Amino acid sequence: MPVAALEKDVAEILIDEATLQAKVAELGAAISADYVDRQVTLVSVLKGALPFMADLMRSITLPLRIDLMEVSSYGGATETSGQVRILKDLSSSIEGKHVLIVEDIIDTGLTLNYLSEYLRGKDPASLRICALLDKPARRLVEIDIAYRGFLIPDRFVIGYGLDYDEIYRNLPYIGVLRPEVYGGE
Ligand code: IMP
Ligand code: MG
């Protein structure tokens, strides 16, 4: 198996590939219905949301634009600090546009809270959030998630874009990382 070297670090598969793909199709259908009269701009957050964005955009049946940002939060490998640094900004103006942020996971909410405020400051016509994974256990700020894929427990997950120390993003499913890998219990 091509990913065997990665799979030894996976404690369990939380969301398998077929379940992920079915959910992405469902989200795409909901977005397609809601934005039928408005042209949506998907703004994805690199690098974690890349596979989700690629699948989601192909499940939306409307004309759309995409843009990409990259942010990094200061902090340890498995925790965010709340201080966000913009590594790559939008390529085009979103003023007057209907913007949908496409994010992989919301944990404390600090990253998306910062990003929403930042994008709101650019005067979009509307701004909503689509998040594949919602991990509410450690939420520090309230985030209004218009489109949510899955509610997940407070475990550190990898795969389908999500990394630990920049690895595991290419796993086709969402798995739980063995705590031994990051020095946990
Ligand atoms: P927040 O600012 O705490 O909501 O964290 C959001 C970011 O932290 C995500 O975009 C991920 O990059 C990262 N993150 C949070 N939880 C996990 C996880 O379980 N696995 C991998 N990355 C995570
Ligand atoms: Mg991310």
Could you explain the architecture of this structure?
By secondary structure, this protein is α/β, with parallel strands linked by helices. 23% of the residues lie in helices and 31% in strands. The chain has 4 helices and 9 strands; from the N terminus they run αβαβαβββαββββ. The chain has helices at 4-7, 17-34, 50-59, 110-120, and strands spanning 10-15, 40-46, 64-73, 84-88, 98-106, 126-134, 147-151, 157-158, 174-177. The strands form 2 sheets. A 6-stranded mixed β-sheet has the order 4-3-2-5-6-7. Strands 1-9-8 form a 3-stranded antiparallel β-sheet, with helices on one face. β5 (98-106), α4 and β6 (126-134) form a beta-alpha-beta unit. α2 crosses α3 (50-59). The chain is globular. The mean pLDDT is 93.
Task: Write out key terms for the chains shown.
single chain, 185 residues, alpha/beta, six-stranded mixed beta sheet, three-stranded antiparallel beta sheet, 31% strand, binds inosinic acid, binds magnesium ion
Layout of secondary structure:
Blueprint: H1 4-7, E1 10-15, H2 17-34, E2 40-46, H3 50-59, E3 64-73, E4 84-88, E5 98-106, H4 110-120, E6 126-134, E7 147-151, E8 157-158, E9 174-177
Helix pairs in contact: 2-3
List low-confidence stretches: none
Largest sheet: 6 strands, mixed
Helical coverage, percent range:
10-25%
Total of helices? 4
How far the N terminus sits from the C terminus, by CA atoms, comes to 28 Å
Strand order of the largest sheet: 4-3-2-5-6-7
Q: C-alpha Rg, in Å?
A: 16 Å
Tally of DSSP β-strands = 9
The average pLDDT score comes to 93
Q: Spell out the helices and strands N to C.
A: HEHEHEEEHEEEE
Shape: globular
